[in-house]
Amino acid sequence: MPFIRDILQHRSLSIVGLEKNTGKTVCLNYILHRMSELGVHVGVTSIGVDGEQVDAVFATAKPEITLYEGTHFITSEQHYMKRQLVSVLEYVDSQRTALGPLVTARVLVRGKALLSGAATTGVLRNQIEQLDSMGVDISIVDGALSRLSLASPTVTEAMILATGAAVSANVKQLVSKTKFLHTLICLDEVLPETRETLNNIESGIWAIDSEQQPHDLGIRSAFLIGGSDNKMFTYGKTFFAAGAVSDRLLKMLASKEKDITLITRDFTKLFITPEVYTEFTRRGGRLLVLQRSRLIAVTLNPTSPQGFLLDSKRTCDALSEALQTPVYDVMKIEL
Amino acid sequence: MKIKDLIKQDAGFLYIIDNMELMSSAGRRKMLSEEFCCDACLLQAEWQRLDLAIQATREFKYKKPYIELRHCLMQLHDLQGTLANLATHTTLNEVELFEIKNLAQLTHTATDAIQGLGLAEVLPLPDTTKVFHLLDPDHTGIANFYIYDSYDARLTPLRRELKALQEHEGDPVRISQLLAEQNDIQQEICKRLSDQLTAYHRTLATAMEQMAYIDFLLAKADLAIRWGLSRPEIGESIVYQNLVNPRLQERNEKAHLRYQPVDITLHQGVCLITGANMAGKTVLLKSVGTAQLMAQCGMYVPASKGIVKLVDGVVSSIGDEQDEMNGLSSYASEIIKISHIIDTCRSHEMLVLIDEPARTTNPVEGKALVQAIIKILNPMQSITLITTHYGQLGAQCRKLRVKGFVENMSDVPLTPQSINRFIDYSLTEDQSDNVPHEALRIATILGCDSQLIALAQENVSN
């Protein structure tokens, strides 16, 4: 499969799924296998905020993955003790999770292991740095259920999006849900100068004037926005939301003026629904990001957890056409 | 009492502790469990170590041994749980063994760094070489760890077979069998190593505690340098030159306000402090309390020169604490506190700080209460500081007055914002029985309702 070459252009990669059971693990296993064949030094970690299984503050279990000789991996003490491979401990973190401290080890004899990871992107970023310092060529982050923050370009350089029958057994719906997220991932970037000006703003909603200068509107968050604030438009119709962007903010902006440009940090800050976004764009609205994620590939798991099987080729084709991106069936990936 | 209890009682002291830059959680634990010390010899010894640490920090701050030591401390993990397991003969797992090996190596590196700082005699660390060798059978010298092949002759052939099978996707049943066998052997080795390490339990515990202490000491030294703290002497009175309240000083600096340090001398018995509103009486009380806690917790004091009298503890009744939540009126909670203070002072030598006692009740009884408090506390061994607005107390105790409002002290226009520039916070001995009457003057400057002030003025004149 061609996307392995693309992955190697980057120092870090996240694998995120639209839903659980979209084949992230199969995809990760495939990548790890190919990397080992190519002799690439890989570091693997994960992020665990999986409401279903374990307390969100702590670590959470993932399906077993196969790790090859020389690979560095990060997991919790408890999962480390259950590994089915031979490895050397190289680092133990001082912070503890419910499953003991997170440990970093290097594989001596290949085998299976469970990954469990940090709960926050801050810790994840440190882990990627740490793997870097251990000399890995690329760090791969295994995602958790419907968790996108790890795919933020401030955390990992590139991403793979996993979708599948678990999202919807209806091909049309599957395509439209995947396409919406894909649209957000592929939003255009602002000009480098604008990025420079806005990058250090940490909170609030700002108006951007024609000189590209930001002005604080005194609104702390998109969730606290008032209904009748017409002073917002003193500096024009371009805004920057440093934090999360909600449906409410988009609706409010679109209801007041046409042709609004809203800049957000990256697609992981968008908590919006397709309906509201469509209405926003219909009124001439435009969303931009400071930094765009590099989407390497979209993968498809045609099997749903209920056992329903989609027609692989038809679905892949429909997705490819809608997204204008190659889509691969994870079940047909040959190891 | 320990630092962790004292910071709950004194917000100024909490501010000091919050500003300590510790490298490790073990160091933080060590700091919080540090006792308020009443022993002059122990304190002198601690200040001596702090003095040496300050000298070493000044000399080596950006040089190798200091940086290396800080780096070691940053990597120090609090292994209380693991060490407790070791003491009770519980088998340690690989991660715990890794932690022990890491501690052994850190101790070794820190020993060299401390040598380089010239502090080897004052801060001795135990020798952990044997522990390290036990966990480094291949003599790699690296703090990595796993159950090395050389621990058991069975491991090499087993792992060789496992590797071959895994690489060629061999029989999964055989693979599971080998993994299980390996686990059993590893377990045996963990048990053996844990038994051997039990003998070094004390060495390791000492190493960790001493490293935690070094972390605390370096943080104290760093704070003393950053804030210009000075080493106190021990005497029979409390004497400060240029005493500051670090929390307030920083707040003022941030707001570009003037901050004036004060000189104060306090002897056994009661010292009554009078002064206009806004003259800093309460701040003075808090500063004296915080400085006393710092000194007796083995730190330097926020003054250019300080002499402390060692006391059994600091007790205070300072009115801005929120007692309404306890369902008590401000008067009730205050009087209970003062009663408790008097009781404590009957058996202990304390530093007592009472801010405007009985100010929330009627002035006739209030004054009578203050007179009684002074009469009881004055002959006692404790050092007591009481602020008040009551005059004509007829008290037979020492009196200090904050100089207070000085009309021509600054050229800037007099406004509520600039009023702080017109106050002289220094203290002067006061023989009279009167208190300053500047409440209405200050209310005027603060822009209070003119009718209110005019009427009050009239009442005073009558």
Question: How would you sum up this structure, described in words?
Answer:
The complex is a heterodimer of chains A (335) and B (462). Chain A is α/β, with parallel strands linked by helices and 335 residues long. Chain A folds into two domains: 3-185 and 294-332, Rossmann fold (3-Layer(aba) Sandwich); 192-289, 3-Layer(aba) Sandwich (Cytidine Deaminase, domain 2). Chain A has nine helices and 17 strands. In chain A, strands 1, 2, 3, 4, 5, 6, 7, 8, 16 and 17 form a ten-stranded mixed beta sheet that branches. In chain A, strands 10-9-11-13-15 form a five-stranded mixed beta sheet, with no helix packed on it. Chain A has a two-stranded parallel sheet with strand order 12-14. The longest helix of chain A has 15 residues, at 171-185. The radius of gyration of chain A is 21 Å and the shape is globular. Chain A starts with a helix and ends in a 6-residue tail after the last strand. Chain B is α/β, with parallel strands linked by helices and 462 residues long. The model of chain B has no long low-confidence stretch (mean pLDDT 92). In chain B, the strands form two sheets. Chain B has a six-stranded mixed beta sheet with strand order 6-7-8-4-9-10, with helices on both faces. Chain B has a four-stranded mixed beta sheet with strand order 1-5-2-3, with helices on one face. In chain B, helix 14 (330-347) links the parallel strand 6 and strand 7 (350-355). In chain B, helix 3 crosses helix 11. Chain B has helices at residues 3-9, 11-18, 25-32, 40-60, 64-74, 80-87, 94-116, 129-134, 155-167, 172-198, 201-227, 246-254, 281-296, 330-347, 363-377, 439-445, 450-461; strands at residues 233-234, 238-243, 262-266, 269-274, 305-308, 313-317, 350-355, 383-387, 398-405, 423-429. Chain B has two domains: 3-219, MutS, DNA mismatch repair protein, Chain A, domain 3 (Orthogonal Bundle); 228-461, Rossmann fold (3-Layer(aba) Sandwich), CATH 3.40.50.300. Helices cover 51% and strands 12% of the residues of chain B. Chain A binds chain B through residues 77, 80-81, 84, 86-90, 92, 94, 100-101, 103, 105-106, 108-111, and chain B through 24-25, 77-78, 93-95, 98-99, 102, 144-146, 159, 162-163, 166-167, 175, 179, 182.
